[in-house]
Amino acid sequence: MLSFFKKNTNHKDTNETPVAVVEPVQDTDAGQEPAAEEAETELHIHPDWDIAIQERYVYQFHHAQLPKLKPNQISISKMDVAADDDSFMVNAFIRNTLSKSIRFEEVTLLLLDAEGTAFARKTFDLELMGDLPAGACQPWIFMFSEEDLTGNVFPADNDWKIAFELKKKAPSEHQLMLHESWKNSLNDVQKTRLYEMVSNLPPLTAGEINFMGIEARMADNSDLSVTLLIRNGSDKDIKVEQLPLCFKDGSGELTAKGAFQLTDFEVKANTSKPWTFIFPEALLLNKTPDLSAWKVYPPQS
Question: Cross-referenced InterPro entries, in alphabetical order (predicted)?
Fold first, then answer.
């Protein structure tokens, strides 16, 4: 087996790219329990791999340095790369925090530079990898050649990532809709996470429109910033001019409420659109809300 390990094993690489991810979201259903914050994985070496005990120790070391994941994620992260003539052998970890094992068939992987732009792309047949157990982290080797490079060269430094390529959905399926400002401000990795989140949400019933919480945080100026996913399960476009919202924090107490004026805000049929709403500090009933669990919802008419 080829050695990918650098002499300096004291370097902690936290430059992970979780993709193909089911990101936990705070549902607007008050009866839903918040998801656990972190999920542990155990190192799993493929039974066909015959590696020396020293290499196993190095894998264990790098596995221990990986950032924590949340439940229900499939993540891929780089470990190392070795160049051999005109090829690049990427050693990577695939982690599974689902409650069941998974099996990959063909997957397309991207190598991304520091700006999130792909500089290499290749499709791999992972049938030989077999089942990846629940809660497992398994190393695997991916061979890229110069023909797979979409950029000019492989970056000379270590500032790059490996990611699953997003599969485009058929027009008839529920899709993510991004405002032009979001398209311009998000990088490829962030867009991929949103696309994967939308694709893994439970399907909407015909005509259903609902709100899913993505993120709530306190801004530096003490305003409350809340990002929602507005989901339109109907076959017609909807336009929103004014949206009243209430926010409850982890204590279950009303933290803020307000009405938001929207200009030319449209959610196309069968799409989900993320948007951020700002509750000014003056509207907060609690200046230090508990954001470990929360919900946001339109008030009852």
Answer: Sec_acc_SLAP, SLAP_dom
